[in-house]
Amino acid sequence: MFLPRSSSTAYLRLCVLSALGVFSLNATAATDVSNNEVPEVELDEIVVTATRTPTKASNVIAQTRVVDSEELKHYQGQSAFEVLKQQPGISHYTNGGMGTTSNFYMRGYDSKQILVLIDGIRYSSVSNGGAALNLLPADQIDRIEILYGASGSSIYGADAMGGVIQIFTKGSNIDQSSMSVTAGIGSNDQYLYGASAQFANTTGTTLSLSVSHNETDGFNATLPEPDNQYSIYNSDNDGFESDNFSIALNQRISEQLLVGASAIYSKSTTEFDNGAVDAFSDQENGAAQAFVDWRYMPGSSVKLQYGHSIDETDTPTYGSHYDTEQDQISLVGQHQLSIGQGFYGIEYLNQSLDSSAYEIDDRDVASAFFGYVFDINQFDAQANLRYDDNSQYGDETTYNLGAAYHINPDWRIGTSYAKGFRAPTFNELYFPNYSNPELEPETSDNYEAFVEYSTPLQSTRLTGYYNDVEDLITSSAPSYIPENVAKAKIKGISLTSDWTIDNYLFGGSYDYQQAKDDSGESNDGNFLAIRPEHKGLIYVGYRLPSLDIRAEYQYVGDYYSGTDNIDSQRVDSYGLLNVSGNYKLTDNLSMTARLNNITNEKYITLPGYDTDGTNFFTSLTYNWY
User: Fold this and answer.
1) Which of 20, 285, 362, 554 has the fewest beta carbons under 10 Å from its own?
2) pTM of the predicted protein model
3) pLDDT per residue over 210-257, tens digit each?
4) Could you tell me where the beta strands, DSSP code E, fall in 63-189?
């Protein structure tokens, strides 16, 4: 039977809604099949990003959030960017569908001020400073850890004064051999297919392989005049396609010695509007690493790691080509002390850019850092100190001090201070006619205090923060030459609460922030761009071993797209209702489905660019064990 595109889309939407209904109707049956076994939900997870050593989340000072593999199943067919924009404290914009230009902000800081790591390796563009998370497929990811605030600067160095996002690829926790194939379909003629395999044997060898292909016709994202003052209207759909690959190999040589390697790679093509021209960009992104980890005694280890990451973009329409690479080698140790744990390390980083447009295309950073964490009786504490020597701008020293007190087993209060900085990008330093090689790093002073209430059923945290940012790099008309002239003050509160009662999960978050210009110039007191004062999310879910369904409503308040704060830059508030779930149809076959923007909310995230209406994605996965 042939169906026209509009009819087939409606039919597929009906299928998804029906499938979600099946999820609910099968809840009782699923309970019987599972013998009323409720999956364990670990509220006190182990995290590594916040301290660079495995630490209980309940002992970490800075606010940390984990997106685990179970939650990531709800984002099949989407990117890491789609996952992050749903998290507390993160705002964003995009000028189209999948793969198009986008940016995110965390607690008022731009993505250039937020360090992104993949398996411990820096992943970002050396030219513009941002990380292409919109090109990183969620189905290749095992876990995401989000560290809020500037404490990461004294652990990881430059570009972490707004926080750290670390992505862990699949393959680190394999307990049995298995294989799977996945096929999915979604709105705008989206198709996904992929396969993965995991192998484990008694000799301590584990291997994980995963490949996928994702494509979509996209939608017409550019608004016509008079809604679009930029006059770049092009009425065609903007497509996207990507091929993705990841691998992880680990070998346990002895109880003390582990060696391994992993890599993730994505090759994609993104169409975008440029007047009457059908324009596109080809991109290649990825990261790879190899390590030797020696645990010479309980609680003590030394890890040697080498990593390489790439970010390459070729845009024939503009005749531009950017090929950036980062090579990193580190030696990190942790040692169990009589009270607490110390860690230390040295790192060497080379950042290079292959483009004839730049006067200088290479820089090196040598670093050393020390840290100390402990939890004893009712006290938690953390102290970090890091020194970075950069071949372009000299040296920077950052540090962090934090402490918390457990009032009783359920209640904890704490506070911290962190010094952060961001290194200028190659574009800011050397881009022809629009750069300044005399730029200094941006710096910040960051203060945070929190109260936390945790029980076996729930975890709730209220965090207040105040950040004073100096030497912000900005450019303005008529020259658009970047200078260290701007200042900003960022303050706010963040409330998160996550509950698990029997089979039910529910909770939410609310963020209030004021990120304002503090330069004393014409925009003094104005809001920084894409920083809404209010953002909130509530969710409710139902989870069994064979069923996991969740509904969520996200509200984003008004904000401005520029620091002039004029009417043409105003973006109105909007709210989105989404439903997602996965259901184990048989022991081998499972289904996932996601329905976004159920109410078909008409909204924008950036003036001149439209967004998608109600859209869906659903897939089937068959597993062999």
Assistant:
1) 362
2) 0.91
3) 999 999 999 988 876 655 555 556 678 899 999 999 999 999 999 999
4) 64-67, 90-94, 102-106, 109-110, 115-118, 121-122, 141-148, 163-169, 178-186
Joined together, the tokens standing for residue 240 give 């996207």
CATH of the domain at 184: 2.40.170.20
% of the chain at pLDDT higher than 90: 72
Of 159, 241, 244, 237, nearest to 209 by C-alpha is 244
The CA–CA distances, whole Å, from 195 to 140, 240, 332, 379 equal 11, 20, 35, 47
Structural domain range at position 519: 5-624
Cis? peptide before 226, omega within 30° of 0: yes
**Number of domain units in the chain:** 1
- Please report which confidence band the pLDDT of residue 174 belongs to, taking 50, 70 and 90 as the band edges: confident
Spatial CA neighbour of 528 closest among 478, 601, 588, 467: 467
Which residues, in sequence order, are bridge partners of residue 419? 445
pLDDT digits over 396-429, tens only?
999 999 999 999 999 999 999 999 999 999 889 8
Distance between CA atoms of residues 442 and 162, nearest Å? 11
Residue 322: pLDDT band by 50, 70, 90 thresholds? confident
DSSP state of 20: H
Contacts of 155 (CB under 8 A, 6+ apart): 51, 52, 164, 369, 371, 384, 386, 400
For 155, the 3-state DSSP assignment is helix
Answer whether residue 29 shows pLDDT above 50: no
